[in-house]
């Protein structure tokens, strides 16, 4: 089997919630060995964010278990000296550390870049606080939606008739920051191969999010443009929109990019009298055209309508929701959904690596770890801790396999 | 020394996904040669934002093939099969040069029943699932701004390309990367994706309010948001100074859900007579995530971004534009200038192939 690009790379993952774990999940998918470190007193909050019925809810979280595959779990209380000592011993044997604590936390734990470098001089530290480690906003606390607001994207999103900006329905700043963080770590590895030097990446999630709207900064800086809410319409083409399909909350997105496509659409929807409308007229009469398209689409199954329009070369897609996406024939044909069993959770479709290396063909290799599942393997096997000490560590709460006082939230 | 010094990248096709992916490659030091896509592949503002630091070439298919074999990474965003039709079949290129990485960015990927589908940002976004949870109930789902399906594909294209390039440096073996915009999004549906996989119920569109304490509200000078976890709820309620909120009805996470609407009304009132700056300051004081909706113009004036040196300046015919520069601190980055279409053909052919046009 062909080697994955990050085989042999060892990553210590101190991150929690979604942005950091998304980054380390990508690294794991590409072959890195990722050790996720949580404290028995301060675990990854995603484990307990939603009430999960049954025993060990922290191990049965569908949310946690989707984004923490390809990782091993080690618990260490970093507030205790022995916990910090063991972490530094682990860092000494690792290439990189990823953390997304609030900007001041790592230093306060005595585990800042300077300390990590003492353990491993060429270590790569990826810090990914919401607003970075420096600058006037460094102390602000941020989650994905906050990052999206503070980076300008929410200001560009809206229906246009109510003046209201909208947030994306997922915490979009998180995966964007996560992908960027994974790439930053890889860039630092490339540079280290050439220079022998480690690096400290100071990634602000707000800034990686702002990277996703660069043309808006061009418009604002050159012409002072303020955001325009276009709903689902295109600044030039027409018509474009998201139209109702047959059934409850079923929708069809389509774009008409040329006169030829417009004529084809008019044939499909049975509106020959509109076929000669030029772009300017289509833009001026967009509301009316939307009604005509909706009258056609709302009486049809979205998948059927999509095929009919695609057959005429019109860009159209049935909108997939968080359920139907698991049954999309295209994604199923590409084996995008993976059905790996997990010891504490029913088997569900989980995403396979989106980075399809056609030849190396990365596939999911291990389910998300149970809390502290690999304590013995890592502490005794990798770090040479005596078996007898494990009991002491557990008694002192330095390690554990049950989060202390886990409730919901 | 720049992280990607010595790396050669050929960009073919050149609409937003490929142009975005290679923008960061160029900034971190790669020599990026961009072969222009069809007329209008990029809007003018997109060119200013995505092309700084790249060399722009006009080359025949035969020249492109030679350049591809002289490159470390080829990034392209044409239709599936389009590259092969031009004599640049990724697998054939790889057979000739095993260390080569070819990154193909498409809406639906290279294989499968929808691979040949026509697509735009909006339709690709619809197929990826994120659209379904954005916007409000009672109105159509709403696409977020600035062509995010295309940008996300470009971002993932960058990250996957450098990862495969590192693999090639280590082992001498590159790969062909088949990235689909649909899959990039389908794998990031937060809790919505796995929850629906468990219970079979699609997540509804919740507009700007997932819960009362995880939402976006109108304030005195615009809009501001709060995203409070359970562990931050007490600090939030203390900051709001409403004693009734400090009772089990609102402090207990399960109890709170029963009265979420009432809580939402209270938060709405609280936000309504405060300014964005006031709310941000309160978030700082209480260590609760508060945010404010900022526009690109406001961000261009942001003290924090200026202190961190976020923006690069790019000279254009219409004046100096300011664009996002280095994506993160800690590795050297170079701001680049804009070149004209085809202006660098001779230089690239000379530098990469030792030949003239």
Tell me about this structure.
- Helices cover 37% and strands 11% of the residues of chain A.
- Chain A has 409 residues and is α/β, with parallel strands linked by helices.
- In chain A, helix 1 (19-29) crosses helix 8.
- The radius of gyration of chain B is 24 Å and the shape is elongated.
- Chain B is of the alpha/beta class.
- Chain B folds into 2 domains: 8-187 and 310-353, Rossmann fold; 209-295, formyl-coa transferase, domain 3 (2-Layer Sandwich), CATH 3.30.1540.10.
- The mean pLDDT of chain B is 97.
- The interface between A and B is large, with 153 and 150 residues.
Secondary structure: elements and pairs:
The complex is a heterodimer of chains A (409) and B (357).
Chain A (H helix, E strand, L loop, with lengths): L9 E4 L5 H11 L3 E6 L23 H6 L3 E5 L5 H12 L3 E4 L5 H4 L4 H7 L4 E4 L16 H7 L2 H4 L16 H23 L3 E4 L2 H6 L3 H10 L16 E5 L6 E5 L3 H11 L9 H6 L1 H12 L4 H10 L3 E4 L10 H5 L3 E2 L11 E2 L4 E2 L17 H8 L4 H9 L14
Parallel strand pairs in A: 1-2, 1-4, 2-3, 4-5, 5-6
Antiparallel strand pairs in A: 7-8, 8-9, 10-11
Chain B lengths: L7 E5 L3 H12 L3 E5 L8 H7 L4 E3 L3 H10 L2 E4 L5 H4 L4 H7 L4 E6 L14 H8 L19 H24 L3 E6 H6 L5 H8 L9 E3 L2 E6 L2 E6 L2 H11 L7 H4 L1 H6 L1 H13 L3 H11 L3 E3 L3 H5 L2 H5 L3 E6 L2 E6 L20 H9 L4
Parallel strand pairs in B: 1-2, 1-4, 2-3, 4-5, 5-6
Antiparallel strand pairs in B: 7-8, 8-9, 9-10, 11-12
């Amino acid at each position: 089997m062909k080697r994955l690009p990050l085989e042999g790379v060892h990553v210590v993952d101190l991150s929690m919630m979604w942005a950091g774990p998304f980054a380390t999940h990508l690294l794991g998918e590409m072959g890195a060995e990722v050790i996720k470190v949580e404290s028995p007193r301060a675990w990854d909050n995603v484990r307990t964010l939603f009430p999960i019925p049954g025993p060990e809810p922290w191990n049965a979280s569908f949310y946690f278990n989707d984004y923490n595959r390809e990782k091993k779990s080690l618990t260490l209380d970093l507030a205790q000296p022995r916990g910090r000592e063991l972490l530094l011993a682990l860092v000494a044997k690792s290439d990189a550390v990823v953390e997304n604590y609030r900007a001041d936390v790592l230093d306060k734990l005595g585990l800042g870049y300077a300390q990590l470098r003492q353990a491993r001089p060429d270590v790569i530290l990826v810090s990914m606080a919401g607003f970075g480690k420096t600058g006037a906003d460094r102390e602000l606390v941020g989650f994905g939606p906050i990052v999206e607001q503070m980076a300008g994207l929410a200001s560009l999103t809206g229906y246009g008739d109510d003046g209201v900006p909208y947030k994306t329905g997922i915490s979009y700043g998180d995966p964007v920051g996560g992908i960027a963080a994974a790439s930053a770590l890889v860039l630092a590895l490339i540079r280290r191969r050439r220079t022998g030097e480690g690096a400290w990446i100071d990634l602000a999630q707000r800034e990686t999010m702002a990277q996703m709207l660069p043309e808006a900064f061009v418009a604002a800086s050159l012409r002072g443009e303020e955001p325009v809410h276009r709903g689902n319409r295109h600044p030039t083409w027409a018509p474009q929109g998201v139209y109702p399909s047959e059934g409850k909350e079923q929708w069809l997105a389509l774009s008409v990019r040329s006169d030829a496509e417009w004529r084809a659409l008019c044939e499909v929807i049975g509106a020959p009298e509109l076929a000669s409308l030029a772009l300017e007229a289509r833009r001026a009469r967009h509301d009316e055209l939307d009604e005509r398209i909706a009258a056609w689409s709302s009486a049809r199954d979205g998948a059927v309508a999509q095929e009919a329009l695609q057959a005429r070369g019109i860009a159209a897609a049935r909108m997939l929701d968080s359920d139907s996406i698991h049954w999309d024939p295209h994604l199923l044909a590409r084996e995008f959904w993976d059905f790996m069993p997990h010891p504490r959770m029913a088997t569900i479709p989980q995403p396979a690596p989106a980075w399809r290396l056609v030849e190396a063909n990365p596939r999911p290799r291990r389910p998300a770890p149970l809390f502290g599942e690999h304590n013995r393997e890592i502490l005794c096997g990798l770090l040479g801790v005596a078996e007898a000490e494990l009991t002491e560590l557990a008694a002192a709460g330095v390690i554990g396999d049950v989060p202390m006082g886990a409730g919901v939230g | 020394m720049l992280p990607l010094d010595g790396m050669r990248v050929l960009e073919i096709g050149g609409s937003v996904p490929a142009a975005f992916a290679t923008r960061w490659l160029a900034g971190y030091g790669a020599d990026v040669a961009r072969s222009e896509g069809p007329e209008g592949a990029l809007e003018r503002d997109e060119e200013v934002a995505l092309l700084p630091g790249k060399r722009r070439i006009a080359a025949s298919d035969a020249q492109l093939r030679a350049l591809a074999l002289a490159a470390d990474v080829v990034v392209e965003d044409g239709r599936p099969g389009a590259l092969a039709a031009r004599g640049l079949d990724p697998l054939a290129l790889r057979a000739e040069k095993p260390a080569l990485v070819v990154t193909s960015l498409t809406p639906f990927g290279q294989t499968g029943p929808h691979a040949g589908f026509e697509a735009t940002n909006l339709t690709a976004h619809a197929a990826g699932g994120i659209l379904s949870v954005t916007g409000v109930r009672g109105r159509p789902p709403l696409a977020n701004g600035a062509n995010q399906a295309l940008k996300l594909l470009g971002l993932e294209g960058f990250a996957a390309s450098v990862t495969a390039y590192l693999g090639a440096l280590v082992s001498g073996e590159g790969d062909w990367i088949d990235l689909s915009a649909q899959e990039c999004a389908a794998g990031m549906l937060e809790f919505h994706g796995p929850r629906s996989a468990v219970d079979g119920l699609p997540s509804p569109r919740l507009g700007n309010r997932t819960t009362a304490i995880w939402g976006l509200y109108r304030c005195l000078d615009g809009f501001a948001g709060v995203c409070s976890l359970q562990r931050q709820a007490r600090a939030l309620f203390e900051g709001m100074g409403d004693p009734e909120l400090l009772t089990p009805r609102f402090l207990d996470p399960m109890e709170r859900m029963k009265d979420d609407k009432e809580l939402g009304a209270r938060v709405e009132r609280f936000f309504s007579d405060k300014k964005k700056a006031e709310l941000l300051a309160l978030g700082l004081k209480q260590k609760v995530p508060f945010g404010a909706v900022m526009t690109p113009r406001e961000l261009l004036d942001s003290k924090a971004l200026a202190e961190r040196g976020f923006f690069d300046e790019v000279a254009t015919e219409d004046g100096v534009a300011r664009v996002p520069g280095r994506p993160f601190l800690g590795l050297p980055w170079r701001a680049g200038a804009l070149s004209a279409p085809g202006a660098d053909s001779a230089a690239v052919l000379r530098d990469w192939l030792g030949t003239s046009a």
